[in-house]
Amino acid sequence: MEDNFINIWEKALEALKEETSQIAYKTYIEVMVPRLIDKNTICFLSPSSYHIEICKKRYLDLIQNTLKILTSVDYKITFEAKDAIPENENDDNLDVEVIKGQYGDIQVGNNSINNTNKKIDTKVLKENAGLNPRYTFDNFIVGSSNRFARATAYSVYENLGATNPLYIYGGVGLGKTHLMQALGNATIDKDPSKKVIYCTGELFVNELIKAMLNPNMNDTFKQKYRNVDLLLIDDVQIIAGKDKCQEEFFHTFNSLFESGKQIVLTSEKPPKEINGLEDRLKTRFSMGVSVDIQTPDYETRLAILKKKAEEERYVIDEDILVKIATRVKSNVRELEGVFNKLVAYTKFTNNPLTDAVVDNTIESILVKNTKIMTSKLVMQVVAKFFNIKVTDLTSDKRSSTIAFPRQIAMYLCREVADMSFPAIGKDFGGRDHSTVLHAYSKIKDDYDNNPDTKDLIDDIKKTLERES
Ligand code: ADP
Ligand code: MG
User: Fold this and answer.
1) Exposed, middle or buried by CB within 10 Å (0-12, 13-18, 19+), for 69?
2) CATH 2.30.40.10 fits 125-293, yes or no
3) Of 32, 52, 295, 356, which residue is least crowded by CB atoms under 10 Å?
4) Confidence (pTM)
């Protein structure tokens, strides 16, 4: 029976590993030692009462359901905290003995729990705050493209609440999330009693929708976001055009602002350039300090690669790093992409890095990016052709002088850049894929049946080919 149960728990662990984030799995689930009390009751021995509290709140249902799927038994689950067990039983060696004696070789009991109590604590706090502890100020490489942003974020950290809000903007993969999370992690390291929440704009929207559907959750939602010392909202531009979200966020913002709590926001663009963002939010977002992060220069790119190699203890020729830094220019995520691919290559093949391998890896990452460039290029060419602004194409404007070029641009993104309808919609100011599909069909039909349209589009295509 016991043996059988150990197998079941091992299977359950496999499933739970899939269902939870890596850090949640390691912190809360893997560390528990199960004991079958009777045929329907399991008691989990857990590192601390704090672990139990979190586990009950977040993972109890999941654990119960997983076990039920595996065994068809509705187990009653109880917990016992290690720190609640009398001293002599909590002795490290004895503890391991007990686990071995009762459960054979099962690996769920992890005797490293005891010696890292403090570490687990801030780790747990960070995890609860939604932060990834990997992002720190220390491993954020400073260069001319991000020096001001980094210095400002650091001074906000040193003086929480004094500059409100901190607004960080810039293109994809340039380090906004890293910097914002570094601020959150450092705040918890300095003072674990500070309540920090990191959340993407997308998550905020999703939680709000859930809360609106369930009046009981509405209060919980409000409490959650208003009851903090530091609120970090990443990619806040996503709330633009969503009335309820903007309304709720406006109140959250005011409540925090008035009580001197720190708000940090990131976005792709400065507030006034976000289409569909309410004016009152534009004003609020511009009240504190706005900083931008730009594309890193060569020295910064090389320094980032060197830092990565050092962190991963990966031995690699400087020449190769120079080559990557020279060729991969547009963002840090791509730099990391190339680097990680090379690390994986070495790990899995054990072969040395040849020039060809390095070149191919760089190409494969850059080619992906060319497609993103193409939607930009299509927009630029089309806008120039019709003598309108690129931002008109992504705007909400509906006049035919704008709508027709926009439809043509969408059509070309599909035809020439081979983009999917949802991807096109996203690049054109977050439009629905059905809107893109409609535009595409309309122009395609026009192209096939109206010689004027055909000539026009063929001309644009030629220009595009020249420009790309
Ligand atoms: P963004 O949020 O602006 O899209 P991220 O913060 O996600 O960009 O950065 C992309 C990746 O590049 C992350 O893995 C991040 O750690 C890394 N990165 C960005 N800027 C730096 C930097 N200055 N130093 C070290 N790593 C960086
Ligand atoms: Mg980001």
Assistant:
1) exposed
2) no
3) 356
4) 0.61
